[in-house]
């Protein structure tokens, strides 16, 4: 049970919906998403802010949700993979990911897709260098080359 002295109430938005949660202020956003809000697309990898499996967009920056405590989320807008598209209306990045058959095991892919979406918002026509510099996620299956191809394809799809 949480120590009552560390409980905070935080109001923020996730994929366009407002949430007001009372929980331990140190609880990582990743836990909030998966355990409190039932949004399980965002994955746990290293738990240390290194691999990017837990990436989400907070306002207009990519954040490692395993390392972002709830107490910093007041008033923020969080976007997860679930907020990007639906099976009926996929986001252009998701369309490109399917076209280029990017995933292998798939575990790391939500983090890559979220990072790619944010990159394309800031830089609609990124170079390979832009991609390598801004997407620092790790993939044990080595999908990096297909990730690059899919980002260029998504840029063409607009
Ligand atoms: S699980 Fe968060 S960066 Fe690896
Ligand atoms: S697709 Fe398997 S870890 Fe990236």
What integer value in Å does the Rg equal?
A: 16 Å
Bound small molecules, deduplicated: FE2/S2 (inorganic) cluster
Q: For the largest sheet, list the strands in their spatial order.
A: 2-1-5-3-4
Largest sheet: 5 strands, mixed
Low-confidence stretches: none
Helices, by number, come to 5
Question: Your description of this structure?
Answer:
- The chain is of the alpha+beta class and 158 residues long.
- It has helices at 29-36, 92-99, 109-122, 128-134, 144-157; strands at 7-14, 17-24, 55-58, 61-64, 77-79.
- A 5-stranded mixed sheet has the order 2-1-5-3-4, covered by helices on one side.
- Bound molecules: FE2/S2 (inorganic) cluster (2 copies).
- One FE2/S2 (inorganic) cluster (FES) binds next to loops.
- One FE2/S2 (inorganic) cluster binds at residues 44-47, 49-54, 64, 66.
List the helices and strands and how they pair.
Elements: E1 7-14, E2 17-24, H1 29-36, E3 55-58, E4 61-64, E5 77-79, H2 92-99, H3 109-122, H4 128-134, H5 144-157
Parallel strand pairs: 1-5
Antiparallel strand pairs: 1-2, 3-4, 3-5
Helix pairs in contact: 2-5
One FE2/S2 (inorganic) cluster is lined by residues 44-47, 49-54, 64, 66.
